[in-house]
Amino acid sequence: MGLRADAARNRANILRAARTLIAARGERAGMDDIAREAGVAVGTLYRHFPTKADLVAAIVEEMSARMFEALDAAVARVDAGGAAVTELTTLFEWAADAVGQDRGVKAALRNLGMADRPDLEKRALAGLSRVIEAGRAEGALRPDVTVGDVVLLMSTLPDDDVPEPARRRWVELALRGLTTGTAP
Amino acid sequence: MGLRADAARNRANILRAARTLIAARGERAGMDDIAREAGVAVGTLYRHFPTKADLVAAIVEEMSARMFEALDAAVARVDAGGAAVTELTTLFEWAADAVGQDRGVKAALRNLGMADRPDLEKRALAGLSRVIEAGRAEGALRPDVTVGDVVLLMSTLPDDDVPEPARRRWVELALRGLTTGTAP
DNA sequence: ATATATAGTGAACCATAGCTCATGTTGAGT
DNA sequence: ACTCAACATGAGCTATGGTTCACTATATAT
């Protein structure tokens, strides 16, 4: 068998605490703080995650999972005949919201560009490719737009030190750079 | 009279060292390192700059000065009848290069948005306004583009952890969001 | 019920980095 | 030359934060 019952419970509590604190304070969240929030001693924390980097990686992976859900949903809608630009817009807005609420998301977005998990990266890029290809076929996206462009833009989404309306405006401007729409 | 001869010399050395190390390592540059690079003891460093924030502020101010030169030159060319979009492009490309070579520039760019030095901020925004207004008049910039948009985009320029060609591509995409040009 | 591997505890360790201060040095005015 | 305020020095203080480990507790298989 695998984990002891109490160990499993603690692991879950640690992840929940880390999620909360990293969302709020980013990597500035301390190991002692996370342990206290989880109702656990530091040593226990280190039993489950031998290093802070490991813990952060676990959280970032959770973020990535949420991103995949959003991406998969978008791809599904595109495959069902939905407008690709609409879906791309939705994705950007989803990311902007996520970045605003959770400091860990930025790291997850960066992970898309740089290869930390080659397998997942492949999957993400494949999904995005699907959407972008469709958008180009529709003539709604400029013909030279690549997956790299989208990843590049997403990974430079403004942090949450930029107020919400500005972040939304940023998305609007970024999308204009990708789409074929002309000025009003 | 003001500074003693040796004090002035040391101050200059400190600023030079700080410039170099902050350009290379950003705010991660340590006070001890800067002092050693300047050929000076830490205490001397602290005599001239009572706190690290003060030293960084001094360097950021130097960066701002360089930015002003670029901006003023652009404004002058626009006033002389130059194309505003061209100048805006030049500004973005200048900033992208600067960010790539110097980690301190990012902080200086952020200072444009947030008010740290209200007087200088006013001047920067006035200059940018001039260029943007001209661009709109030419019909080369979309009518709804504001100074805030440009500052917003500039402050999210990719760091130097993004390779050079990608940074340049980013500028291209960002400018597309501001200009009226259609897809090729 | 007992044994024991597995897990938990938290005080202490260590490295880093900003900063201080008692002491020594020197530029510049007389 | 002499003086002294201004300046420089650098060992060490302090706070922070990741990490360890000797010891204690307990879940679970028998």
Topology:
2 copies of one chain form a homodimer.
Chain A: H1 5-25, H2 31-38, H3 42-48, H4 52-79, H5 84-101, H6 104-113, H7 118-138, H8 147-154, H9 164-178
Helix pairs in contact in A: 1-2, 1-4, 4-5, 4-6, 4-7, 5-7, 5-9, 6-8
The structure holds a DNA duplex (30 and 30 nucleotides).
Walkthrough of the structure:
The structure is a homodimer of 184-residue chains. The longest helix of chain A has 28 residues, at 52-79. In chain A, helix 4 (52-79) packs across helix 6 and helix 4 runs parallel beside helix 7 (118-138). The model of chain A has no long low-confidence stretch (mean pLDDT 93). Chain A has helices spanning 5-25, 31-38, 42-48, 52-79, 84-101, 104-113, 118-138, 147-154, 164-178. The first copy, chain A, has 184 residues and is mainly alpha-helical. At the A-B interface, helix 8 and helix 9 of A face helix 8 and helix 9 of B. The structure holds a DNA duplex (30 and 30 nucleotides).
List keywords for this structure.
homodimer; 184 residues; mainly alpha; 9 helices; DNA-binding
DSSP, total strands of chain A:
0
Q: Using CB atoms under 8 Å apart, which protein chain pair has the greatest interface? A: A-B, 27 and 26 residues
Find the structural class of chain A using helix and strand composition. Answer: mainly alpha
Tell me, rounded to a whole number, the average pLDDT of chain A: 93
What oligomeric state best describes the polypeptide chains here? homodimer
Strand content of chain A: under 5%
Low-confidence stretches of chain A: none
Report how far the terminal alpha carbons of chain A are from each other: 64 Å
Q: What coarse outline of chain A follows from CA principal-axis ratios? A: elongated
Into which percent range does the helicity of residues of chain A fall? Answer: over 70%
The radius of gyration of chain A is 19 Å
